[in-house]
């Protein structure tokens, strides 16, 4: 047996089915938050640093494919196979509004100013809902060439990004005119698209490769072939010197942004990795998997040695979101206002 150094993640249990989307809030006065979407129909909110479970948004009747938080982490949104996108109060867990669609909602995103919610899905239509007038009909932007997989805002909400499930490329739309202003060409469908927090890059994963695009001039900056079919990728937000990718081989790969060289490989998931995102400070990143768990990895972990005998990382450390917490769940959100009040008190005492 040989000894090797491994990264030990925080393992977050709670979902009963695959985790398919993750979203970090910006750093807020109340702390950092992480919301997850799962096929179990119940998005969950966690402390983004520790992985501690804060509460569960209950109300969807089908798999939840997408989730997001607004800039202040006061509201969350989710898109579901039950043909709705829902707006939630992130302090109480209450459902604020349900936006009806005619087919599965696959993607959702808050505008930078937090006043608008963008959705897309199997209807092949991008919709913009005014959160100040939630009962008003949405504005529809263009006609997509296929079922919409990802959506995002950029350029201070002047541009909309979308990709399709059944065709390659990323389309950039003028939010006012509804016309396509640019298409970023890829051979395969883009399953993950991330706009960097500084607005410089668009990071895409299209199965065989991860690409980085200039978010202002739309030129291709870097393109790297991946060691396996890759579903999601994320660029480190502070220095931009590394990126992470995950896919069907169940591993979380770490690469040098400038050379494409693999510099790390984290093992521990027991199913394909569907989503992966850096925290806004870049000190950690989260991965969500077919195995129903979320794992939070330190970007520069302390060294641990393991007797290697053909297995991945041992699951060690405190279990975040204990079974007791989850089984105590009753109807609605459970740590609601008191939960965030406790976090505020912790911050005040820090």
Walk me through the structure.
By secondary structure, this protein is mainly beta. The chain contains two helices and 29 strands. The strands form seven sheets. The chain has a seven-stranded antiparallel beta sheet with strand order 19-20-21-22-23-24-25, with no helix packed on it. The model is unreliable at 306-332 and 334-350 (pLDDT under 50).
Keywords:
single chain, 350 residues, mainly beta, 7-stranded antiparallel β-sheet, 2 helices, disordered C terminus
Strand content: over 45%
Write down how many β-strands occur, each being a DSSP E stretch of 2 or more residues: 29
Q: Strand order of the main beta sheet, please? A: 19-20-21-22-23-24-25
Shape: globular
Termini separation comes to 43 Å
Classify the secondary structure makeup into a structural class. Answer: mainly beta
Number of helices: 2
Largest sheet: 7 strands, antiparallel
Mean pLDDT: 88
Q: Compute the gyration radius: what is it? A: 19 Å
Low-confidence stretches: 306-332, 334-350
Helical content (DSSP H or I, runs of 4+): under 10%
Short account of what is shown:
This protein has 2 helices and 29 strands.
Topology summary:
Elements: E1 2-6, E2 10-12, E3 19-24, E4 33-38, E5 44-47, E6 53-56, E7 64-69, E8 75-80, E9 84-89, E10 95-100, E11 105-110, E12 116-121, E13 126-130, E14 139-141, E15 148-154, E16 159-164, E17 168-174, E18 180-189, E19 192-195, E20 201-205, E21 207-214, E22 220-235, E23 242-247, E24 252-256, E25 262-266, E26 273-278, E27 284-289, E28 294-298, E29 304-308, H1 323-327, H2 336-349
Antiparallel strand pairs: 1-29, 2-28, 3-4, 4-5, 5-6, 7-8, 8-9, 9-10, 11-12, 12-13, 13-14, 15-16, 16-17, 17-18, 19-20, 20-21, 21-22, 22-23, 23-24, 24-25, 26-27, 27-28
